[in-house]
Write a structure and sequence with these properties.
The structure is a homotetramer. By secondary structure, chain A is mainly α. The first copy, chain A, has 2 domains: 56 residues, Arc Repressor Mutant, subunit A (Orthogonal Bundle), CATH 1.10.10.60; 129 residues, Tetracycline Repressor, domain 2 (Orthogonal Bundle). Chain A is elongated and about 65 Å long. The first copy, chain A, contains 10 helices and no strands. In chain A, helix 6 runs antiparallel to helix 10. The interface between A and B is large, with 62 and 62 residues. Chain B binds a DNA duplex through helix 1 and helix 3.
DNA sequence: GATGAATGAGCGTTCATTCAT
DNA sequence: AATGAATGAACGCTCATTCAT
C-alpha cells in the first residue's frame, strides 16, 4: 500500500467498499460487523474509520453502486431491434454480473424504510431508472412499434416491478432458469396479450 | 387482565403478536428489541418469554400471518367475471387491509436469506400462492378466456413478481394511487398486449 | 393429595425434599431452578413456596438428610469383629444406598464456603461424625486391639478424609470397584503398616 | 498500562487469570460474574472478552493452574529421605502456597460433574498425580523401604484421597494445624500400622 | 496512516420470587 | 391449598466507536 500518490485514498475506499459489499450481501446490514469487513481486507477495524465516518456511511456509499451497474446494463442491452430480445438480454446480463446481489437490494430496501436519507437516495435512483425505461417506451411509441395510447410511465413501473419481484423470488430459492422464463413470458404477454380473439 | 378463562393465553399471545408485528414493521427484525415489544404492551420483557421461546420464534409466528391475509383476499377478489376488475379489486383490498405492511414482507425476505427455516417457510408460502394463481389462470384457459398455449406457471410468477415489485415501490415512496394505476395498466397490457397490429 | 390429616404438610415437604435432592444432585445448586423441582413433582412453582421460604431454605433442609444416612450406616456396619471387615461393609453400604450422592456432598461443600449458616451446619455434622469414629477407635484401644498411644482424633479425621476423598474420586470417573479396593487397602495399611521390618 | 511490548497480551491474560481465580475461589463459578472479575481489575466487561472467549473458557484455563502448582510442590517435597518427613513437607508447602485454594478445587469438582470437557481434564490431572505418587511408592518398594506385596496403585489413591479429604475439612472450618496433625498421624499409621502385636 | 486495546451501552434471555385469583 | 402469570434484576456476551501509541 504505497501512500504517495493522491489516488491512494480513493483506492483504499474502493477496496473497503468491495469488501463490505460482499459482507453486507452475505450477512445483511445488522449482521455485518466492522470487524468482518476489516478481516476481509486484512486490515484493522480502526482503519475503516479513516475512510468512512461510520458503518452507516459505509453502507450509504455501497447503496450507490447498485444503480450504476443497473444503468450500464440497461443501456447496453436495450438497442434497436426486437423488444423481447432486448428484454431477455437485459435480464441475462443482470443475472450474470457478479458484483451486485439481490440480497443487497432488499437489504437496502429494508434499511431505507427507517433511514430517510437512504430512502431519498433509493427513491432518486428508482425514478432515474423509471425515466430511462419510460423514455425507451416512448421512443417505441413514436416509432410505431407500441400502441399510441399506452401509459408509458405506468408500464415502466410495471416492468421495473416485474424485475424487482423476480429478483425477490430468486432470493427465496427460485431457480435462475425459472426466473428467466417467467421474465420472458411475462414480457411477451405484455407485448402480445394473453386474451383470445373472442374475449372482449 | 383477568387470567381465569382458558382463552387468556391465546389472547395474550395474539396481543404480543400484534404489538411485535408493528414493531418489526417499523424497526425491522434486528432493530426491534424485546424491550420495544414489551413496552408497547406495558409489560415486562420476561412476560414475552412466557408465550414465545425466543425473539426468533416470535418473528416466525409473525411470518405466518402475512400469507393468511394474502390468501383470504385472493379468494374473495378473484371470482367469475372480468379479469381486470378482479385484479383491481385484489390490489385495492391488499392496500386497504391494515394488518400487514410491505415493510414486513421485505424484512422477512431479508431475514430469510440467512435463516434456512424461515427461507423454507417463505418458499412454501410463495409456492402456495403461485399455485393458486396458476390454477386460476388454467381455469381461464379452459373457459376459453385466455389463449390455449399460455405458460400459466410462468405467467403466475410474473403476476406475483409484479405485485411484489409494486409493494417494494410503495416502500420507497411511490404513492398508492400511482401503484394502483401501474398495476392496472400492466395487468391490462398482459391481457391485451401493447404492440400495434403492424408489429410482428 | 388429601389435606385432612395434619401429617399432610410434613409429607408434602418430604416429597419436595426428595424431588429437589435429585435435582440438586444432578444439576447443582445454581443449575437447579425452582421450576425443575416443581416439574418433577407435577406441581406449580408457587406451591414450593408454601413449604419452603426460599430456594436456599430448601437446600438447607436437604443438607440435613445426608448426615442422617451416614450415621445410620455407620452404626449398622461398625460392630464387634474384624475392623477391616467392618470398614469394608461400611464403604459398600454407602455406595449401595441410593438416596445420597457424592455430587450433593460436594455441592454442599462448595455452597457452604459462601454461606455461613450452611457452613456451621456442615461443621456440626462433620464433628458429630468425627466423634462417632473417634469413640469407636477409643473403644478399640481400650479393648487392646489398637495401640495404646494412638491419636484417635487425628486418625478419625484421617479416616473421614480418606472416605471423602474417595467419594471425590468417584465424581471424576473412578470406578466403584477401584474405589473400594483403594479404601480396603488403605485401611489395611493403616492397621498393619506398610514398612518392612527393616525400616526404622 | 503500556501496550507496546509484545508480552502485553500474555500479561493481560495472566492478570485476568489472577483476578478471576480469586473471584471464582470466593464466590464459586456461578456466583462469579464477569462484572466481578472486570471490577477487580478496574476494567470493562468487554475487555475480558478480548482475552477469553467466554466465562467457561476463562474457568477452564484456571483449572489448569491447580495441577501445575501441585506437581511442582510434589516434586520438590518428595526426595530421598524419611517418608514421613517428605509427606509433612509436602502438606506444609501446599498449605503455604497462596495461589490455589481448596475452594477452587471443589468448585471445579462440582462443575466438572456437569461439564464433560472439564471432567475429562480433571480426570487426566488426577491420573497424572496418581501415577506420580505410585511411581514414588514403587521406588520405595524397590529400595526395600516398603513391603514387597503392596498395592501401590491403591495406596496412591488412598493417599490422594486422604489429602483431598483433608482439604475438604479445611473448607468447613477445620484449623490448619489440626489438618496437619491428622495428615501426619494418618500417614504415620499407613507406614507403621496401628494394631497391637497381639492383633491378628 | 494505521493499529488494536478498551469502552460502554445495549441485547436476548433466565429465574427466584410474588400475588391476584 | 394451589396456581401460574408477571416481574425485575441480573447475567453473559457483542460491537460500533474511540484514542493512545
Amino acid at each position: 500500500m504505497p501512500r504517495v500518490y493522491p489516488e491512494y485514498k480513493t483506492e483504499a475506499k474502493s477496496r473497503i467498499l468491495r469488501a463490505s459489499l460482499q459482507a453486507f450481501s452475505e450477512k445483511g446490514y445488522d449482521g455485518t460487523t466492522m470487524n468482518d469487513v476489516a478481516k476481509r481486507l486484512g486490515v484493522s477495524k480502526g482503519a475503516l474509520y479513516l475512510y468512512f465516518k461510520s458503518k452507516g456511511e459505509l453502507f450509504k456509499e455501497i447503496c450507490e453502486l447498485g444503480p450504476q451497474i443497473l444503468v450500464k446494463i440497461m443501456f447496453t442491452s436495450f438497442k434497436d431491434g426486437d423488444l423481447l430480445e432486448n428484454a431477455e438480454t437485459f435480464f441475462n446480463m443482470m443475472l450474470e454480473q457478479s458484483v451486485w446481489t439481490p440480497n443487497l437490494s432488499f437489504e437496502i430496501l429494508s434499511e431505507s424504510s427507517r433511514n430517510p436519507t437512504l430512502k431519498k437516495m433509493v427513491k432518486q435512483n428508482y425514478d432515474k431508472t423509471l425515466n430511462t425505461v419510460r423514455a425507451f417506451l416512448e421512443e417505441q411509441k413514436r416509432k410505431g412499434v407500441l400502441k399510441r395510447d399506452l401509459e408509458t410511465h405506468q408500464l415502466a413501473m410495471g416492468l421495473v416491478a416485474l424485475f424487482d419481484g423476480l429478483m425477490a423470488s430468486l432470493l427465496i430459492g427460485t431457480g435462475e432458469a425459472e426466473a428467466k422464463q417467467a421474465w420472458n413470458q411475462t414480457v411477451k404477454a405484455m407485448l402480445h396479450g394473453t386474451l383470445t380473439r373472442a374475449s372482449p
